[in-house]
Amino acid sequence: MSDIFEWMPEYSIGVDSIDQQHQELFRIFNKLSTAVSQNDSPKSAAAAMHEMSQYLDKHFTFEEPLLKKHPDFDHHHLEHLKFIENTLDFQIRFADQDKTVHMDMLSFLYNWLKEHILEMDKEYFRYLKENNLLDN
């Protein structure tokens, strides 16, 4: 099965470490999507969701110090907190064996990755680079 969300060069924000982390998020999302679409054991989907949560925590911890100089950093941080809250909700629903959780979760993750990484992150890092606020 092919990936439903492939990394393309135009998704790059121009910061290698962040681009590599975003590519890893795409890989984990596709792993989760495959586990759900192929009706793998619930353990496979749960493991992929746990991997996504763990990796995003690592990613946010790395990314946020880079973004602190952006004038709207608090909004970006709030978006990260909302994401964490949503993923915790999905994990609870999954544990409760909610039958709709898989598709809801994939839809949410796909849209969040697309909008957050490809729009918000790209704009924030563009601003930081243009204003020489990004430490290299």
Describe the structure in brief.
Helices cover 74% and strands 0% of the residues. With 136 residues, the protein is an all-alpha fold.
Characterise this structure.
The chain has 136 residues and is mainly α. The chain has a domain of 94 residues: Four Helix Bundle (Hemerythrin (Met), subunit A). 74% of the residues lie in helices and 0% in strands. The chain has 4 helices and no strands. Helix 1 packs antiparallel against helix 2 and helix 2 runs antiparallel to helix 3. The longest helix has 30 residues. The mean pLDDT is 87.
Using brief descriptors, characterize the structure shown.
mainly alpha; elongated; Four Helix Bundle (Hemerythrin (Met), subunit A)
N- and C-termini, Cα separation: 38 Å
Number of DSSP-assigned strands: 0
Mind summarizing the main beta sheet?
A: none
The low-confidence parts are none
Order of helices and strands: HHHH
Average residue-wise pLDDT: 87
Number of helices: 4
Structural class: mainly alpha
CATH class of the domain at 43-136: Mainly Alpha
Shape: elongated
Instruction: State which percent range the strand residues make up.
Output: under 5%
Helix content: over 70%
Q: What is the name of the CATH topology of the domain at 43-136?
A: Four Helix Bundle (Hemerythrin (Met), subunit A)
Radius of gyration from CA coordinates: 16 Å
The CATH homologous superfamily of the domain at 43-136 corresponds to Hemerythrin-like
